[in-house]
Amino acid sequence: MAPEKYQVLILGHGEMGLAMEYWLRPRHDVLIWQRHPKAGRPLDLSAAAAQSDFILFCLPAVPHFELATRLKPALRQTTGCVSIAKGLDDSGRTAAQVFHEVFAEDVPWGVLHGPMISEEIRAGRPAFADFASLNPQAHERLRRLFAGTPFAIRYTRDVFGASWSAVLKNAYAILFGIADGLGLGDNTRGWLAVECTREIEAIVTALGGAAATPYSLAGLGDLITTATSAGSHHHELGRKLARGEAGALEGEGVHTLKTIYRHRPFDPAPYPLLRLAHDILTQPLRARELMAARLEQVYRGA
After folding, report:
1. Could you tell me which residue ranges the Glycerol-3-phosphate dehydrogenase NAD-dependent C-terminal domain spans (predicted)?
2. H-helix or E-strand spanning residue 224
């Protein structure tokens, strides 16, 4: 039997949009939407959405609400909407929270999180992710969409736990770059891996997620990948902070830290490493001092 061929609309053509296109264009009919295309006129978004079997949101969380609201009237009941965003929008919502608010149960939706470095995907290497959705049939359709690619997809119903695990790991990954930039060694990296994951678990469970989810591909798997990858944007951000660079630092982890402290979706006070990441972000010239102070507390058993 010939594999199914789908109509796929990819929103955004950055690193992950390119990666999704690399996998899907040889097997499916793919359209790309960019708000500001480099050439030609923008794609008619509503018309393209109306014909799509899948819409992949390969862009930051910030425009998700606007785009989801704009697209919803054009969608068929079977159109699968999938986000890979690992950040918060300007109101402090994850992509899963936005989709839940806009789509509810009207269309199948989910979030896709895990070790998926774009450069590796486009080099033909394997990738792995958790697909979090309240709709098991959406998972089966997504597996068929990516059939024939080196992409392993696991299913979980813990939508908000997976989403928050992926969001938080970018904030915590910055600490690994800071530690490396300060020359603190491999032992410190191992300690950070354990303690960051413990804090993510505490936050996720406080927000209603499952305790196991932070140890999944969406959590620990993606954290280790982001924290140790030579080309990781968030790791390099940490190194810049360790050097005291306080310029225009950008990235989902930076935006996440700022948004958490602005909107307080949870109280950051009980989480010393999250506080440390935020404190160094806002006071990079004190990076060594602040990290040393936290380690001194750890030495004393605090």
Report:
1. 158-291
2. helix 222-228
Residue 72 is among the residues annotated as catalytic for this protein: no
Residues 157, 133: contact at Cβ < 8 Å? yes
What is the C-alpha separation between 128 and 110, in angstroms, rounded? 16
- What sign for the dihedral angle of Cα 186, 192, 195, 198? negative
Last residue of a domain, one of 142, 157, 172: 157
If one counts the domains in the chain, the total is: 2
Q: Are residues 91 and 231 in the same domain?
A: no
Both structure tokens of 294:
């936290």
Among the residue ranges 38-42, 82-86, 184-188, the one predicted with the least confidence is: 38-42
145 and 238 share a domain?
no
Q: Among 137, 157, 177, which residue terminates a domain? A: 157
Q: Which of 38, 72, 86, 169 is catalytic?
A: 169
pLDDT band, residue 2 (cuts 50/70/90): low
Over the stretch 218-251, which tens digit does the pLDDT of each residue have? 999 999 999 988 778 888 889 999 998 867 777 8
Structure tokens at 182: 């300060």
In what order do the strands lie in the sheet containing 109-113? 29-33, 7-11, 54-57, 80-83, 109-113, 127-132, 151-156
Phi, psi of 193 (to 5 degrees): -60, -40
- pLDDT tens profile 97-137: 999 999 999 999 999 999 999 999 999 999 999 999 999 99
**Are the CB atoms for 24 and 58 separated by under 8 Å?**
no
Nearest one of 133, 196, 198 to 160, comparing CA atoms: 133
Backbone angles phi, psi at 230, to 5 degrees: -60, -30
Q: Which of 142, 55, 153, 145 is nearest to 103 (CA)?
A: 55
How many Cβ atoms are within 10 Å of 145's Cβ, its own excluded? 25
**85 and 104 share one domain:** yes
